[in-house]
Design goal:
This protein is of the alpha/beta class. The chain has one domain: Thiamin diphosphate (ThDP)-binding fold, Pyr/PP domains (Rossmann fold, 3-Layer(aba) Sandwich), CATH 3.40.50.970. An 8-stranded mixed β-sheet has the order 2-1-3-4-6-5-7-8, with helices on both faces. The longest helix has 19 residues. It is globular, with a radius of gyration of 18 Å. InterPro entries: 2-oxoacid:Fd_oxidoreductase, THDP-binding, TPP_enzyme_TPP-bd. This is 2-oxoglutarate oxidoreductase. Keywords: Oxidoreductase.
Length: about 260
């Protein structure tokens, strides 16, 4: 096949998991949510656990996840996904259960549910998509919004004196004894996608082995909320979010990484 032929639509190969429904995604073009959705479905498909997996999505950009992920899904009220997931885990302990939450949902509206589910060590996986903003509801400041970062509710930038510091909730959660593994990843390059995939597979393996709660944070851009192009948003994420929210393992097999 000639190189020019590869770009023809009929010859293109799309790396889409068979567990993605094929419905048009509701996420903004350039957002990391679509990649995250597909990656989770890839791992579930590879592990052959699609019939035994239940996902929980609350209010936020992931609210229509059931339209995209071809597995059993249920919704939860804003911030309450860990509570709903706890009920599922307690009812069907043989299932693989995960929540898929944004930073405004998990780290603000659902702080209590998140902290207590983690502290109890519920046998589930929590996926935390951190784009530093309330993406779906108008671009308001979130707990993870960086100092000086502008949003619809902090138009002059986040001011620490009156608004507090950005919350490193992932590090906070890592210190809870019920949490078995914690890591932070990004999806803006092939290398980072591969690392995130390994972590996702290990998290579901932890569920199989009844190790308790696995927590995976994924840093993502929000080019529409940040008022940038996708490329600009990725560059901004690397230059500004990575130093404050460093990538890598934070807790492995119940032990904090020093």
């Amino acid at each position: 096949m000639e190189v020019l032929d590869i770009i023809k639509p009929e010859n293109q190969v799309f790396c889409k998991s068979q567990l993605m429904t094929g419905n048009a995604l509701s996420y903004c073009p350039g957002c990391g949510h679509g990649t995250a959705n597909n990656l989770i479905m890839e791992v579930i498909d590879e592990m052959g656990i699609s019939e035994d997996t239940i996902g929980v999505a609350p209010v936020g950009c992931s609210v229509l996840a059931y339209d995209f992920m071809n597995i059993d899904m249920t919704q939860a009220a804003h911030g309450r996904a860990p509570a709903v997931a706890t009920a599922i885990v307690r009812t069907w302990p043989e299932k693989y259960v995960f929540t898929y939450q944004g930073d405004g949902d998990l780290a603000a509206i659902g702080t209590a549910e998140t902290i207590h589910a983690c502290n109890r060590g519920e046998n589930m996986v929590i996926f935390f998509i951190n784009n530093g903003i309330y993406g779906m509801t108008g671009g308001q400041m979130a707990p993870t919004t960086l100092e000086g970062m502008k949003s619809s509710t902090s138009p002059y930038g986040r001011e620490i004196a009156t608004m507090g510091s950005p919350l490193k909730i992932t590090e906070l959660i890592a210190n809870l004894p019920g949490v078995y593994s914690v890591s932070r990843h990004a999806l803006h390059t092939h290398k980072h996608v591969r690392k995130a995939r390994i972590a996702i597979k290990q998290a579901f393996e932890n569920t199989r082995l009844k190790k308790g709660l696995s927590f995976i944070e994924i840093l993502s851009n929000c080019n529409s909320g940040w008022k940038m192009t996708p490329n600009e948003a990725n560059e901004w994420m690397v230059e500004n979010m990575f130093p404050y929210f460093p990538l890598g393992d934070i807790k492995v097999a119940g032990k904090l990484k020093v």
